[in-house]
Amino acid sequence: MLRLIITISCIFLLSGTAFIPSAKAVNNSSQIQPYLERVKERIIEYELDNGMKFIILPEKEAPVISFVTYADVGGANEEQRKTGAAHFLEHLAFKGTTEIGTTNYQQEKALLNRLDQVHNQLETAQEKGNSEAVKQLKTKFETLQKQASQYVKQNEYGKIVQTEGGVGLNAATSADYTVYFYSFPANKLELWMSLESERFLDPVFREFYKEQQVILEERRLRTDNSPVGKMIEEFLGTAFTTHPYQRPVIGYEADIRNLNRSDIREFFETYYVPENLTTAIVGDVDPEEVKALAEVYFGRFSRQETPPKVTEIEPSQTETREINLTLNSQPWYFEGYHRPAITDKDHVIYEVISTLLSNGRTSRLYRNLVEEKQVALSARGISSFPGNKFPNLVLFYALTAPNASLEQVSDALTLEIERLKNERVSDEELERVKTQIQASLLRNLDSNKGMARRLAEYEGKTGSWENLFTELEAVAAVTPDDIQRVARSTFTEENRTIGRILSEK
């Protein structure tokens, strides 16, 4: 029986501990660089013989540890007509193993297999239009689901984590990756090793069909019933013609409905191999103990075939593309431009441009479109969308003000972009933007969990966690000429995609 050992004070500590000075205290890069160098010196890398990587950062200020498992697989890795598999698998990764989440796995397994068979028969009957068979199979399917559910110990994985003092148990799926994370008291390192290794060594994708309905409902809320969600899906499908960034991470409705347990099992076995996993561990740990336990628990994984890589290359856009949707919504305006991946030398320049134009109330878009011209209620931008592991988009979007038109928003945005191309950014404004970027990064690194997530992400996306720290140096080196050069090459009519949400009213 697991024992409840955590106190309220320990829960408070598990929220994380600061590594570096508060973002509010940062005035320039020279102030934080010495702190970052000290952090870098404490980071230890370790790789198992099977290819799984560990990034360890000891931090003794509080008796807590944050764990992040980064799977180098996301929506972009999915096959055509099987979109949503990465996100589906994220949901199922919390369902337990042959030992966790069941009262009798052998009995449950037989029912799960029978459920799959009946589901396949039901789909066949529906395709043939055999209404009587459909009715009978639905009844049989519902009966089997009830029988299988009798063996399920609901959310047992999460209850174990919570009972043993864990907090923040969660996961996230993007176009580029899937990440799993939570924090434990420092004396629970081995328990984490056991739980995390078991769920990826011995997963059981139970309650598959129930979770399928949950995901379909999630899609209805985020996309089908959301004007902006609908536009984003259509916009990406217009801006990208070849690269899988054109597809939604949550998946198309028909694909979600057609996915089965064997599809998810195949996806898991293809991509959740040791060399595709990176774990970052930050907190009160002994690196030698981490290494020893990693060998015991994750060393059980055998080296597998290298997963297939995304090979599609988006061709250069040669003319402006447009997508217009008439919906029950206030008018929205979207404008996107293709840009290179995070590993490109100009990546930080796009970060600077996006921050300059759209970060907060001091940004150019807010000041000019919202405050001065009053053509928009909000105006923002994203420097990398829908991901940044591969060439992606700089995206700008604005909610039109009640007495303004989409054309006025478009004109005002174009004016700011042309200004960026033709006028040098002042040293004062550029320094302010650099400080904002530095402060934003510091906020992300100001806790165990934040540091662990960033270390794992940069290792997975760029090939080295050290690029997280060199990015700050690169930001400090950006010049007005760099901004002008990138703006002129990127913000062209032939590289532009426009999206408009037109009001039905």
From TrEMBL:
Superkingdom: Bacteria
Domain Peptidase M16 N-terminal: 70-106, 148-250
GO biological process: proteolysis
UniProt keyword annotation of Signal present: yes
Protein name (record): Zn-dependent peptidase
Coiled-coil intervals, chain numbering: 105-154, 403-430
The organism's taxonomic lineage, starting at the top: Bacteria, Bacillati, Cyanobacteriota, Cyanophyceae, Nodosilineales
Species: Dactylococcopsis salina (strain PCC 8305) (Myxobactron salinum)
Similarity field: Belongs to the peptidase M16 family.
Leader sequence segment: 1-25
Annotated keywords: Coiled coil, Signal
Domain Peptidase M16 C-terminal residues, every copy: 258-436
